[in-house]
Design goal:
The protein is mainly beta. The protein has two helices and seven strands; from the N terminus they run H-E-E-E-E-H-E-E-E.
Length: 144
């Protein structure tokens, strides 16, 4: 992320997403670290180098407080996709004082009631997707 944005990013996650977030500096490197689940963090490292154009990659997160962040993002016109009652998306992380974009990465945000929440990490059945998911049919049982 661009130099000078770690504080804005940490504040955005704390106040908009209600996530734990802090800024640290070590050996000349400044990072924003955001809690994203048990033993998981999103780590944003500052750089003075030119950043490549956003390439459409994303992160997927499940959150317990699904409506609070949604409402706060909607107030700032930051929701980019309102998928269904259990999923929405946003791309821009903004300076909360100016609403200026400081970094872009799409967030696919899901509720804990989303049908794919806590889906087992196994060799997945490629026939299943978000539209036809059946719990317990995750494992790929085909032959190669």
């Amino acid at each position: 992320m661009p130099a000078g944005t770690a504080t804005h990013i940490a504040r955005f996650y704390r106040e908009i997403m209600n996530a734990s977030a802090n800024v640290s500096a070590q050996d000349g490197s400044v990072t924003a670290r955001v809690g994203a689940g048990g033993h998981q963090r999103l780590i944003f490292g500052e750089t003075d180098e030119d950043l490549p154009a956003y390439d459409e990659h994303d992160v997927q997160i499940y959150i317990a407080d699904f409506s609070g962040p949604y409402r706060r993002l909607l107030e700032r016109n930051l929701i980019t996709r309102d998928v269904d009652p259990h999923e929405w998306r946003f791309r821009d992380i903004v300076d909360l004082d100016t609403n200026e974009v400081v970094f872009t990465i799409e967030h696919e945000v899901r509720s804990l009631k989303h049908p794919l929440y806590a889906r087992p990490l196994v060799n997945r059945n490629p026939e299943q997707n978000n539209l036809n998911y059946i719990r317990g049919k995750d494992g790929f049982s085909g032959s190669f």
